[in-house]
Amino acid sequence: MPIEYYTFLCCIIFGIGVIGVLTRRNAIIIFMCIELMLNAVNLLLVSFSKMHYAKAVAAGSADVLTAASEGQLFVFFIMVVAAVEVSVGLAIIVMMYRNTHNVDINFLNRLKN
Amino acid sequence: MTQYAWLIPALPLAGFLINGLLSGRLSKMMSGIIGSGTVLASFVLSVMVFFQMNGQTEVVTLFDFIKAGNINIPFSIQFDPLSSLFLLIITGVGFLIHVYSTSYMHEESDFHFARYFSYLNLFVFSMLLLVMGGNYVIMFIGWEGVGLCSYLLIGYWFKNTEYNKAANKAFIMNRIGDLGVLLAVFWMLQKFGTVTFAGDAGVLAQAAKLAVNDPALVGITLLLFIGATGKSAQIPLFTWLPDAMAGPTPVSALIHAATMVTAGIYMIARSNIMYTLAETTSGVIAIIGLATAIVAATIALKQNDIKKVLAYSTVSQLGFMFLALGVGSYVGAVFHVMTHAFFKALLFLGAGSVIHGTHHEQDMRTYGGLRKMMPVTHITMLVGCLAIAGIPGFSGFFSKDEILMGAFARNPIYYYLGLGAALMTAFYMFRLYAMTFMGSYRGDEHHHPHESPAAMTIPLIVLAILAFAGGFIGIPELFVHNGHKLATFLAPVFEKSTQINAIAHPHNISHTQEWILMGVSTVLIIVMIFFAIKKFGGYTRTDAEETGLGKVLANKWYVDELYDTIIVKPVMWIGNVFATTIEKSGIDKGVNGVGKSVQYLSRQFRLIQSGNIGNYIMMMVVAIVGFIWIVYYLKM
Amino acid sequence: MLVLLFILIPLLAGLGLFFTNGSGMAKTISLIASLLVLGVVWYAMYLPDTNELVQYSRVWLGSLGSNFDLKMDGVGKITTLLTAVSFPLVFLATWRNDYKDANQYYALMMLTQAGLMGVFLATDAMLFYFFWELALIPTYFLCSKWGGDKRIAVSFKFFIYTFLGSLLMLIGIIYVYFKTPDQSFAWSSFIQADLTPTEQAWFFWFFFIAFAIKMPIFPLHTWQPDLYQQAPTGTTMILSGVMVKMGLFAIIRWLLPIFPDMSAQMATPIIILCLVGMVYASLIAIKQDDIKRLIAYSSIAHIGLMCAALFVNNASGYDGAVIQLFNHGVNIIGLWIVVDVIERQTGISKMSELGGLAQQAPVMAVLLVITALANIALPLTNAFVGEFLMFNGLFTYNPWLALLAGTGIIFAAVYTLGMIQKVFFGAKNELIKVTDVKFAEIAALAIIVVFIVWIGLYPAPFFKLGAGELAEMVTAKLPG
Fold first, then answer.
1. Cβ neighbour number for residue B420 with a 10 Å cutoff
2. CB atoms B595 and C418 under 8 Å
3. Which of B67, B144, B168 shows the shortest C-beta gap to C378?
4. Are the Cβ atoms of B611 and A111 closer than 8 angstroms?
5. What is the pLDDT of residues B558-575, one digit of tens each?
6. pLDDT tens-digit readout, B91-135
7. Given an 8 Å threshold on Cβ–Cβ distance, is A105 in contact with B610?
8. ipTM higher than threshold 0.85
């Protein structure tokens, strides 16, 4: 399948994520949208990685392994970071809910003034 | 002798310092002795200098005053016949007035008495510096110094706001004139590179080499003359002098009659060669002098305050002196300075004696019949009046005659107008005499006018003798061959001017003509005197308002009002506009406006920080998309 | 080495004062420290310019090419002496004033002195800028903490104004630095900077505006009357007596040598601006009712004349302005001392509410009259010597400009005499109780009077101080 298919799909998922973050007020949903964006990027990385691998094989390049693994390595990194983020983020949301009985982020405008 | 000459001004300065620094701690007796004694000592020294004078100019340089860049102005003093004559007048008349003051000011407290004498001594110092200065800058120091003392003494009774205003007016008007002198000094520095009077490299010697009516010379002389109009109360800067009568009467006698106001004449006489060559300026001086003589005389006709009459009379006489300077009769001007110092000091001190005797009353309408109550004052005042009117034999006759003859030689119209002013002089002086001494006493019955003490009458008598006899040092050629001792004495100072004038304006009055002119003027003056005595001898008080021309004269031609309208008010108005409109609503508002607009902008920017996370993220996204688009666009 | 003491003594005294307590102690320490500075400065006055003691050099920001270079020469001697003389005078004259947190007040005053000394001694542009700011900041705190009712707004305005100027100057300094032949901030390199005419035109104005704000020159002056009115009088004395001289000094030290051609080209507009400002300020002074504002406008007028005289391209104007730096400083401090005495006792600074004080305080009246006469440049006072030379310089440049400036001296007489009359003369005002000046104030005013008469009669020693390498260079670079 041509690479464009993957990129378009990723753009769409990423766009959904962005729009979700911008429009929704529920912290949990915003969080899920952020995950959506991260995963869009992961998907993109993997697909490019695959593409570079195929190109390297076709060209008979020496460092086929590097071309195959670099993008996927990043994906693992991102997944780890996302996991950490989820745990910290959820903890914050839970704390917020305990304090305000609400997960509406517009409620959190104390930085103003 | 001349190496000690710096003592002449230094002694009054010492008197000023002693009286000034120890004011209040000295008894009146001591203050008076220090004040008068230092001036007497200066007088003695001046007499010694005078008798050693042989027509030479001697310059003594004391130290460097301003020496910077290419400017070198030494602090030097100079002696020549002109300055030695002025030294005598200043210290002589000054001493008499100091003695007179010890009695006149006796009612003052110790502190103010000492203050008065310290001012007087400071004045004498400044005046001596003025006439002894070896260059224009040292002269200018004295010139402003006398203005300062005049200011201090006019406002001597400082509790009275009117007096203070008069003092301020005098100082400021003088300042306008002083600016002229200052600019002239700069011009001289530029043109001649020096301001020293004497010597081959001096200003006067260099100026003598210039052509007639050289533009720079005309400019310099006109600027100097502006200074002279300020100091010597000529049109247009004359209105301060009558107001200056707010000061104690001896001050009026010393500063505003005998000495300070003649500084302008001294300066022009000192620079005579420049004025002889600058014929345009000389013409201006003659016309201004004549105009002042006439205008002031007309005002004096209608004044009722005895000091105001004398003040306008002084302005008028100064006008005569300037007329003399303008027509090149320098000796006549200096001669008149001298005789005027005698008889005007006498008249002022006499008026002071009358004021003292009538318990500080200055309105002549309340006088009358004082000749019996104040005999010494009466006789001496009469001598003064005769002298100023120009009765033959009295000093004023000789000097005034010389001026009028000089004016006739230059232009007969000057003579006729000058004679008119002289006739008015005779009239108003005898109006003053008749209103004060003749008839019967019109004042408050409870006040009994009394003769003044000896400390006041003795100076009067000495001055009366001088006012009578002072003219004999300048007897015209007409009467006695070589009788004009003063002209001979002053000849070295005016040598070059005399030579130039002898060629440019030959003296062409025959003796017959001179006899006729003199006779006619004398007869007319005597007629005027009789007329005045007849009209005012039996003066009874009427409070009728003056009408027509009389009202205009009584209100001094409305000159003060005119100046107020065309100068003072506009300046104040501009100041007000600057202070309120331009400063407050203009510049300051502009500056504050910058601050305000910054604050406004910051308030607007602050609105963006809504605190709404969604907004922030939205902005972030928009910005990111924007950046990407820019990068993409740039790549294309 | 000795010059370092000029800065170190007040700096250490100032820092030390923060850790002391009590007003008496603070007064004593600062008076002693300032007298010590005066002693050292006075001694240094007798040393020749080339003496090792009046120079100091040490690497400072070496990688930038900036050294800690101090040197006392020519005009710097005059201003240094003025700084050294004014602080003891101010402390003496305000001895009877009590300030809240006196130790901080005096500490900041001493820091100001350190900054001022640095400005007048620095021969390195970066160092100069550093001290320029160091002198500004303590004054800001002095005004905003010990000033009058509107102190905050007014000191803020002052700070912004001068800071804006400083920034322009900083840009100028950095730009010129890159154009110096050896990439150095040293004065000697700056004057060799290779600038095109366009650059000269731009950066001349950058520097000039910075200095003009400090002086101040019309129309950049509006911070001054407000500040003088609001600042504590002791600070006002320093502000008007010494601080405004920073601008004039900087013109002599930096502007004229760095931009000689542009200074000559721009002379006419600048002189006209200065003189218009002079007449403008004089006319406003006539209409003022507050003594403090009157003196402020009078100062603007005088400074305008001095600035004009620096641009007239001749030695007479230059010499006059240099000696006037000192004269104006001591004279205006004298005026402020009297204002301070009156205000401390009555709380009034409006002339319409005062009057007749001469009867209650004759000694003060006499001393004020002498200082006021010096303010209007009467002969035999110090200001006459300076103004005579400045006017002569102006006259040589253009007689009509001298005439314009001359109207200023007439107006000066009007407002100064008006002030004397309204405050001291006239009928006694029963509502106002004033006691005469006491020893401390008499001593301070007497010293000022001594300077007035000394320079007025025999100015030669001060001309000698002002002369020197810098003066020769500046006047030599001036065409004609």
1. 16
2. no
3. B144
4. yes
5. 888 888 888 888 888 888
6. 999 999 999 898 888 888 888 888 888 899 999 999 999 999 889
7. no
8. yes
